[in-house]
Amino acid sequence: MKQSKEFLEKKELIRMDKEFYESKHKFKMEELIFGRESTRLFHEMEMERQRIKSAEIRKFQMRKQEGGYKY
Questions:
Q1: Predicted pLDDT of residue 3
Q2: Rg of the chain, C-alpha, whole Å
Q3: What is the DSSP letter of 30?
Q4: Domain assignment of residue 71, yes or no
Q5: What is the pLDDT of residue 48?
Q6: How many domains does the chain fold into?
Q7: What is the pLDDT of residue 29?
Q8: How far from the centroid of its chain's Cα atoms is residue 54's Cα?
Q9: How many Å apart are CA 63 and CA 25, to the nearest integer?
């Protein structure tokens, strides 16, 4: 049975549409992974800054208690 040209074109369009949506989904998943990783790294940097800040405050308070600073 011979298929019409219109049928073959529609079949090809459907195939291309499916590939497009699969690619779109793949890129969206990669975007979400990138977003999660970026957020995690940002959070880790913030935590590190907070640890450094806390350590500096502790050092200052220890020096103050030892009499290193006079007011």
A1: 77
A2: 30
A3: H
A4: no
A5: 97
A6: 1
A7: 98
A8: 27
A9: 57
> What is the C-alpha to C-alpha distance for residues 34 and 13, in angstroms, rounded to an integer?
31
What integer pLDDT is reported at residue 15 of this predicted model? 97
State the Cα–Cα distance between residues 62 and 64, nearest whole angstrom. 5
Alpha carbons 45 and 62: distance in angstroms, whole number: 26
Both tokens assigned to 10: 């529609």
Which pair of tokens denotes residue 33? Answer: 């992974």
Residue 69 located in a structural domain: no
- Provide the residue range defining the domain that includes 36: 1-64
pLDDT per residue rounded down to tens, the chain (71 residues): 567 999 999 999 999 999 999 999 999 999 999 999 999 999 999 999 999 999 999 999 998 888 766 55
Matching residue, tokens 């369009």: 13
